[in-house]
Amino acid sequence: MASNVNPTVRRRRLGQELRRLRELKGMTAEEVAERLLVSQSKISRLENGRRSISQRDVRDLCGVYEVEDVRIVDSLMQMAKDSRQQGWWHSFGDIPYSVYIGLETDAASLRVYDPLVVPGLLQTRPYAESLIQGALPEAAAGDIDKRVQVRLRRQERISDLENPLRLWAVLDEAALRRTVGNKQVMIEQLEHLVEMSHVPHVTVQVIPFAMGAHPGVSGQYAILEFPDAADSSVVYIEGVTSDLYLEKANDVQKYSVMYEHLRAQALNADQSREFIADVAKDYAH
Questions:
Q1: What is the set of domains in the chain, with CATH numbers?
Q2: Are the C-beta atoms of 171 and 207 separated by less than 8 Å?
Q3: What is the DSSP letter of 166?
Q4: Which residues form the HTH cro/C1-type domain (predicted)?
């Protein structure tokens, strides 16, 4: 379940507020960096929430921005303190996509498109194990198990009765046809997918091969939206060595429009269930 204090989201909110104060002051990130004798990249990382922010950083920046309201300074200092707490995922050690997990943990809704595999939040344990083993052939068994445990823990957001994640997943037919593990693993996975599609706050749609070219041929992405209006939506694109987070309104809008086209071209929810069930029968033959 989502924690009351999510350090990832706290860093984002704090970074957004610090950027707002800088812009109100009419200063560039380079000018601030020169005043504090730090690199411009540090200021950028503090503002985009990718770097932990210390209370000393907040104090120094408030000094540069001449923030005189003690209540504002105290509030920002508390946010900095909260941002340094650890989320549940830190107990699993070094997780390469921990920033994303923090965002997903606090998100109100998630729209995901995946052309190759079943999305992590809808994976069964055997499917997840086989998928991670295949994707990371040189990884140790312990590391694979850790990743599987994290993936299963993430799925608790869907079953959280008080704060369920609104999930909309659009899959390409290739994600259903790619045999991950073996036929039995795929049968169980596809049956689980059908079962999850009946959950009120989960929608699953499939784009068949017959649909031809569509706006999602460029690859996988996800759009996260948050319950607090102060938290801007984020487009997440997973990479091999680094991930991409797009937060500018124009970028989010473009991906949102593209997602609407995907939803429109995909089979509807009922048709998708039938399609997934038929593919499961193909594996059984």
A1: 9-83 (1.10.260.40), 88-284 (3.30.870)
A2: yes
A3: E
A4: 18-73
